[in-house]
Amino acid sequence: MRLDRVIAVRNTKTVYRDGDKCIKVFNGEYSKEDVLTEALNQARAEKMRIKVPEIYEVSRVDGKWAVISEFIKGKTIARLMAESPENADGYLELLVDLQLEVQREKCPLFESLSEKARRGISAAVGAGAERGLLRAQLLTPDEENCVCHGDFTPENILVSGDGVPYILDWANASRGNAAADAAGTYLMLRRNGDPAAERYIGIFCEKSGLDGAEIGGWMAFAAAAQYAAANERARRFLFSWLNRRDK
User: Fold this and answer.
1) How far is residue 40's CA from residue 241's CA, in Å, rounded to a whole number?
2) Cα 168 to chain center, whole Å?
C-alpha cells in the first residue's frame, strides 16, 4: 500500500490515492466505532439507487484506522464552482437534485436524526445552555424516514470525468425529516462562510416544494443534531442557533 499521493487533507483525516484505491486515514480522534460506523453507512448507501464509491475494506495503516474504497477520478462540486463561478447556480441545482434523490431513499438501519439531536442537546446543556429552552427543539415531530446524508455540501459531491456524480463521506448519515436535512446543509454552508447558503435554500425550496419558513423551523433542531460531533469552533457557531426558531 502506497501513501505517497495525498489527494485531500482535513482536520481529522488524510486521503491518499493508491492506483485504483482511495485510502482515507483517520487520526487519533476517531475511535474504532466511528470508523466502522462510517464504513457501514457507506456500505448501506451502496445498495441505494445513488452513486457512492465502493467500500473495499477497513484496515490499519501505520497504527491508524483507515477505510479503503474505490478511487473515483473527478472534481468536487466545490472545486467546479470555484473554477467556473458563472455556473455556480447550475452546480447548486445539481447539489439539490442529488440531495432530493438521497432523501427519496429509505434505510431503517440508519440512526434516527432525533437521536442525534438528543445527544447534541445533552452536550449543549453541559456547555451551559438552558435545558428548558432546548427541550422545545425536540417537540418538533420527526415522523419522516428519509435518508439524511448529514454532511451534504459541495465538498462531498465528486463529479467523475464522464459526468457521473458520487456522494462521499457517509459518517453522519441518519434517517429523518427532509426539511431538517436541508436546514443542516444550510448551517454547514453558513458555518463554512459559503456565500451560496442563501441561494441553496432558494433552490431547495423551489425543487422540493417546501417553503423557507418550514425549513427555518428546523434550524435549531439541525444545529442540535450536528452539535455532539462538531469541533469546538463549529460548536460555538451551532450554539448560537440552538434557541432560535426561524432565521
Assistant:
1) 31
2) 9
Predicted TM-score of the model (pTM): 0.90
Cβ proximity of 247 and 241 under 8 Å:
yes
- State the Cα–Cα distance between residues 100 and 80, nearest whole angstrom: 20
- The string of pLDDT tens digits covering residues 236-246 is 999 888 866 54
Task: Tell me how many degrees the CA angle 41-221-89 measures, rounded to the nearest 5.
Answer: 75
Q: How far apart are CA 51 and CA 41, in angstroms?
A: 14
Question: 177, 158, 15: which is closest to 91 by C-alpha?
Answer: 158
**Rg value, the chain, Cα:** 18
What 3-state DSSP class applies to 176? strand
Distance of CA 98 to the CA centre of its chain: 13
Give the phi and the psi of residue 76 in degrees, each rounded to 5: -75, 160
CA distances from 1 to 18, 19, 26, 56, 61 (A): 7, 9, 16, 13, 9
Determine contact, residues 186/142, Cβ cutoff 8 Å: no
For residue 58 the three cell numbers come to: 477497513
pLDDT digits (tens, 9 = 90+) for 70-126: 999 999 999 999 999 999 999 999 999 999 999 999 999 999 998 898 888 888 776
Give residue-wise pLDDT tens across range 152-180.
Answer: 999 999 999 999 999 999 999 999 999 99
d(CA 144, CA 97) in angstroms, rounded, equals 19
**For residues 145, 146, 149 and 152, what is the CA-based torsion angle, rounded to 10 degrees?**
-140
